[in-house]
């Protein structure tokens, strides 16, 4: 609440003059939220703030001030690299196919079918472990535990409107580009469910 904004000159030197107004094209360091609000008059969803920590950077700004927030998650870059490998794509495709087969074929109760189902379950378990190991052998992906989002992703989704590996990712978009939220299907909205299920 006390640290004032300081202007940075062309040589990168921090100036100690009191800041009465933030000027376009200038670089400032330090400062605090309350001084920022006073100098800009910006309120609510007109502000898009980027930070790299969910709680110390984003949570209060979302909850108390209604700001839009963007999270910088450097680990995303390596996770995307892994997810785009041929091995990962093939493994996930087969895992999803195998899960679909298990869902459809579990109604068959004869001994031969049950034997095949047990083999598929064993293979599915091994493949789930393999997909976890693509990322980190101890805890898997930062974003997903099997088919569920991790606690980290749930908090990230709660406090960040958008997230990316670095701010430079925005250079891939036109300045007038709008990011729209995606609708996540709920269990009862999935096509496999029927009335009364």
Could you explain the architecture of this structure?
- With 197 residues, the chain is of the alpha/beta class.
- Among the domains are: 5-73, no CATH class; 75-141.
- It is built from six helices and seven strands; from the N terminus they run ββαβαβαααββαβ.
- It has helices spanning 33-40, 54-63, 75-83, 86-105, 111-135, 151-159, and strands at residues 5-8, 27-30, 48-51, 68-72, 144-145, 148-149, 162-164.
- A three-stranded parallel beta sheet has the order 3-4-7, with helices on one face. A two-stranded antiparallel ribbon has the order 1-2.
- α4 packs antiparallel against α5.
- It is elongated.
- The model has no long low-confidence stretch (mean pLDDT 89).
- It comes from Mustela putorius furo (European domestic ferret).
Main features:
alpha/beta; HAD-like_sf; 197 residues; two-stranded antiparallel sheet; HAD-SF_hydro_IG_5-nucl; hydrolase
- The 3D shape can be described as elongated
Main β-sheet, spatial strand arrangement: 3-4-7
For the record, give the distance between the C-alpha atoms at the N and C termini, rounded to a whole number: 54 Å
- Mean model confidence by pLDDT: 89
Helical percentage: 40-55%
The helix count comes to: 6
Strand % is: 5-15%
Radius of gyration: 24 Å
Q: What class do helices, strands and sheet pairing give?
A: alpha/beta
Multimer state: single chain
H-E order: EEHEHEHHHEEHE
Poorly predicted ranges (pLDDT <50, ≥5 residues)?
Answer: none
Number of strands: 7
Sheet with the most strands? 3 strands, parallel
Family: Belongs to the 5'(3')-deoxyribonucleotidase family.
GO molecular function: 5'-nucleotidase activity; metal ion binding
Organism: Mustela putorius furo
Protein name: 5'-nucleotidase domain containing 3
């Amino acid at each position: 609440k006390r640290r004032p904004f300081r202007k940075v000159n062309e040589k990168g030197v921090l100036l100690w003059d009191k800041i009465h107004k933030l000027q376009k094209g200038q670089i400032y360091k330090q400062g605090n939220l309350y001084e920022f609000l006073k100098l800009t008059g910006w309120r609510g969803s007109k502000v898009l703030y980027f930070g790299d920590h969910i709680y110390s950077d984003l949570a209060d700004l979302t909850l108390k001030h209604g700001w839009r927030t963007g999270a910088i998650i450097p680990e995303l870059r390596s996770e995307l690299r892994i997810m785009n490998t041929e091995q990962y794509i093939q493994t996930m495709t087969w895992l999803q196919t195998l899960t679909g087969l298990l869902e459809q074929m579990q109604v068959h109760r004869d001994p031969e079918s049950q034997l095949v189902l047990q083999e598929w379950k064993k293979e599915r378990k091994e493949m789930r472990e393999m997909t976890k190991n693509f990322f980190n052998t101890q805890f898997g992906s930062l974003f997903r535990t099997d088919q569920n989002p991790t606690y980290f992703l749930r908090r990230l989704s709660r406090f960040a409107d958008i997230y990316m590996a670095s701010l430079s990712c925005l250079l891939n978009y036109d300045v007038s580009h709008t990011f729209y939220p995606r609708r996540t299907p709920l269990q009862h909205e999935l096509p496999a469910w029927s009335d009364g299920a």
